Amino acid sequence: MSLQSEALQTIPARQGKAVRIAKDQQIRVINTHGAQVLDTWAVSAADTREYMSMEHTRSINSRWAIQTGLVFVSTRRRPMLTVIADTTPGAHDTLLCACSIEIYRELGVTGYHDNCEDNLHAALRDAGLTLPVTPAPLNLFMNIPIDADGSIRREPPSSRPGDAITFRAEMDLWMIFSACPQDITIINGAERKPTDAHFSRSAIPA
Amino acid sequence: MSLQSEALQTIPARQGKAVRIAKDQQIRVINTHGAQVLDTWAVSAADTREYMSMEHTRSINSRWAIQTGLVFVSTRRRPMLTVIADTTPGAHDTLLCACSIEIYRELGVTGYHDNCEDNLHAALRDAGLTLPVTPAPLNLFMNIPIDADGSIRREPPSSRPGDAITFRAEMDLWMIFSACPQDITIINGAERKPTDAHFSRSAIPA
Prior knowledge:
Two copies of one chain form a homodimer. Chain A is built from three helices and ten strands. By secondary structure, chain A is an alpha+beta fold. The radius of gyration of chain A is 16 Å and the shape is globular. At the A-B interface, helix 1 and helix 2 of A face helix 1 and helix 2 of B.
């Protein structure tokens, strides 16, 4: 990142945050403690009806897995985010839904439980935005090996403290992060302890 | 199917069709000519804000591939459709988007081209329904092998003429089919010739 990068910003444990990013600006997303999944969405700043699509991204790249250089596209097939660096071993998920209150019910929770779906919509509201649906998320740092027999496994993140993935924005957009509050399964690490994560944006290009 | 099944209904080549199905009713979806992909959606009859979700279905089944017995769930994690029989070799896709006008632009088409996204919304309109988005489809008979290196391939359907997949509805719902109009790639077979497909519903349970 350039010397003009902003100070580290916090994505608080169990919470969501909407972040404005200009075209050509970069954002470095840091797994500060190493085992925190970040459910991630992107929405066009010009028109919230256009948002980042996992199914169009898999289609246009002919890939189900992420790698450096991969371009995430919108529901209208326009480039939104390019992966320009990734210090993790590469485990990120594009296949699974955000956690929601129904999932915590399935896990036996009877009262309210923080969840990525509600975090998305709360963060959008804070930014003055709304979406009529919960799009399929990009689950940064989430380790979901898939098997040839058609099954999916859930493993703790393979990232280490300080590992980061860096994106360049290809249009003016909002990114929305949710520091996943899952504390029942081992998806946020064997300690089942959701933590803060951080990000830093480069200066807005002139 | 029982003797009470209706006569075969047609899903016309290149077009969409919305079909009402009652809880516990069965529908047999037939690849009449063997190589036709059907993009497929399901929407709750009680509330169109609840619709079939590929990302929740992969999550709740811990599977990216389909098999007999698999239950497709909604955005609210409720069962919508159960696969009760499948005479194909099993190749159906849950990973890729519906084709849209932008995809035909990428393929060099300059004028209008029929596409599954527009077919979905036209079929919904004919049924008096609307959706604010195009959900990720279940692509019946679409043959998308996935590789351990993270890539996805596109192959012609492996189904044979008359192969069929049968579902039981787990709630009152609409199914929407689009006989995919893709005639540039080999996704609907090497002949690149979209065809009709058919379905038949069992009697509505008493």
